[in-house]
Amino acid sequence: MKFNNLDHKLFWPAISFTFLALGLAVLFPEQSGAAANAGMRWVTNDIGWFIQLAGFSCLMFLLYLALSRFGNIKLGTESDTPEFSYASYAFMIFSAGVGAALIFWAVGEPMYYMQSPPMFAEKGTPEAAQWLITFTLFHWGPTGWAIFCMPAVPFAYYLHKMKHRNLRLSQLVKTVIGEKHANGIVGYIIDIVAIFGTLGAFSTSMGLAVDLIGSGVENLTGIKNGLTMQVGIIVLFIAFYALVMFAGMKKGVSKLANACVYAAFALGIVILVSGPTAFIFAYFFDSVGVMFNNYIRMSFWTDPVQKSGFPQAWTMYYWAWYFAYLVMMGVFLARISKGRTIKQLVLTTITFGSAGCAFFIAIFGSYSVYNEISGTLPVLQWMSESGVSSAIIQTIKSLPFGAVILVIFLVVEFFLMSTTMTSAAMAVSMMTTKELDHDADPDVSVRMIWAVGIGAVSMAAFFMGGSIDTIKSMCVVVGLPMIVLYFILAVCLMKWIRRDHPELFTTTTIAPAAKETTKATEQSVTELRQVEV
């Protein structure tokens, strides 16, 4: 393989900086952990309100773009057509954003909330029960998907509309920070921190997936879910990723995403039918009503008086974690959005992403809640004794034909995480490629070296043992400067649109049909004058 197209000046410092952070966490666990946790507490406690405001602002800004006159702007030339069918497009968006973490937290979050209810509710009361999957739906709902989608619009505009073949983040924000800073040390720091945020955020998701799959394998085979198994699972992810990448975007990534989503939804239907169907439907719709009735309150709840710590530990952490995914989600969604309009990109991401998450939360979350409150299964006891992963596995195995369903569940989890890994590797590969090809794809060699790099980072995180919490805290801290970059990207996008579509900023914009009528009238008058002459 040749790596001539790899931006070595960016790749090696970024990967080295990541391993340096991991190394410091291993060599100085107490000091690095204390520093990272102090940073996380400062971000969530002192300026957590800013994170919540930024998340809600992303949602409002995107809805404004999609539903206004800007929504019909095509991300590409007038002759560009979408590369993927709408179903494949939506499935790739969903599978890239959730991975295995969704089902992990679909069961885990309601159980944690049952022990420490939000919104001042008392533990064990009906009032507390109404919030159990409500907040889970909220954390995986429109605001979270808006954070994912927001950078994708300027990335897609820059790639497909402006036809640039280098996606370094520093180059996108050049319109605001200036060429001198973009090509200097400021731009360099922006690119490295953005890649580090992606690697750190992804390693957190990978940690959840590997532990969950390992727990399932242990339950089925008796082989201990130790370091050897976890490293082996990561190696399998890398090997499978290689097969997908060599197959290409259309034959590999899109078909994998389609298969993942179909299999995952089929699994959900099986659990829905096998479980307490009536309770799942009733509890889900009741929770949706509670969420919509309190959406603004939940979006800005900081709990400054009672100081329960709930919004800091959950909502603010989630939003900061999502912000750290700036490069991964922004670049990947941009890559697959050629020929789509801004409206299609925004509404598909927010609506399909939220609805897909709601489907799994409704089934897995409601099923676990029902079993716990009815006394059918000791889900909380399993969590306290063996952890969330083990509790999920035992809950799945309690279903009719549990062993068979568990095998299917583990396969689906593996494929879902493989799709997320593909998205992460594709995104950082595009960012560290000197010049993308005509399909906006990086070289296979660049993608493969990043797959190995991402796998190595994930393995290193497992070797750290308990220090993985340090990396999670660092991701939250990194998410803060990402918010500033979000704002800059939004300003850049509006400047580009104003430059390319000045007619959209006039006070009286003529409708397209009126324009065609006007042109036809002018042409008729011209022809009439020629006849008269």
Automatic annotation (TrEMBL):
<feature type="transmembrane region" description="Helical">
    <location>
        <begin position="128"/>
        <end position="159"/>
    </location>
</feature>
<keyword id="KW-0472">Membrane</keyword>
<keyword id="KW-0813">Transport</keyword>
<comment type="similarity">
    <text>Belongs to the BCCT transporter (TC 2.A.15) family.</text>
</comment>
<feature type="transmembrane region" description="Helical">
    <location>
        <begin position="49"/>
        <end position="67"/>
    </location>
</feature>
<feature type="transmembrane region" description="Helical">
    <location>
        <begin position="475"/>
        <end position="497"/>
    </location>
</feature>
<dbReference type="GO" id="GO:0022857">
    <property type="term" value="F:transmembrane transporter activity"/>
</dbReference>
<feature type="transmembrane region" description="Helical">
    <location>
        <begin position="345"/>
        <end position="367"/>
    </location>
</feature>
<feature type="transmembrane region" description="Helical">
    <location>
        <begin position="448"/>
        <end position="468"/>
    </location>
</feature>
<feature type="transmembrane region" description="Helical">
    <location>
        <begin position="316"/>
        <end position="333"/>
    </location>
</feature>
<feature type="transmembrane region" description="Helical">
    <location>
        <begin position="227"/>
        <end position="247"/>
    </location>
</feature>
<keyword id="KW-1133">Transmembrane helix</keyword>
<keyword id="KW-1003">Cell membrane</keyword>
<protein>
    <submittedName>
        <fullName>BCCT transporter</fullName>
    </submittedName>
</protein>
<feature type="transmembrane region" description="Helical">
    <location>
        <begin position="10"/>
        <end position="29"/>
    </location>
</feature>
<feature type="transmembrane region" description="Helical">
    <location>
        <begin position="259"/>
        <end position="285"/>
    </location>
</feature>
<feature type="transmembrane region" description="Helical">
    <location>
        <begin position="88"/>
        <end position="108"/>
    </location>
</feature>
<feature type="transmembrane region" description="Helical">
    <location>
        <begin position="185"/>
        <end position="207"/>
    </location>
</feature>
<dbReference type="GO" id="GO:0005886">
    <property type="term" value="C:plasma membrane"/>
</dbReference>
<dbReference type="Pfam" id="PF02028">
    <property type="entry name" value="BCCT"/>
</dbReference>
<dbReference type="InterPro" id="IPR000060">
    <property type="entry name" value="BCCT_transptr"/>
</dbReference>
<keyword id="KW-0812">Transmembrane</keyword>
<feature type="transmembrane region" description="Helical">
    <location>
        <begin position="403"/>
        <end position="428"/>
    </location>
</feature>
